[in-house]
# Entry
Amino acid sequence: PPGTDLYNKSITYHYWSAIYNAIIMLASNELGPRTPAEYLFVSVMMIVGALIMANIFGEMAVLAQVMTKKQVKFQEQIDTANTAMKNLVIGPEVQQEVRNYFLFTQVTLDEQQELEKFLELLSPSLKLEVTIHIFAKLMKKKLFSNQHSKVDQT
# Structure
């Protein structure tokens, strides 16, 4: 019978076979219902599968669009900086430092904006709890301990 010598096939055959079976499962092909109950079950599962796939593809499209907007804006900033540095004949080491700075500030800015949006969604009492949790370690540190002796010396 076909398919019994699977272990004697190449790794490429295994991958293509897995892809084929995944597509068959997702696309609901080659289903052969025989009884009315099987027809009903297969029909419902095909509709559910189509809805799930549509949801997944929709979410992927939205994520790709959002990421593309952020990336385009950031790339424009980098391109402007690169052009300015090239026109000013700035050395490659300094150029790399500037690019690293842009990358660091962009990540930090995104994190700050996400935090602000998150805090806007909270009630004042929850916002206070979250703020205390965020800054608890900093508040527990004695930042200026042992500094009085240095002040006295001056």
Notes: The chain has a mean pLDDT of 80.
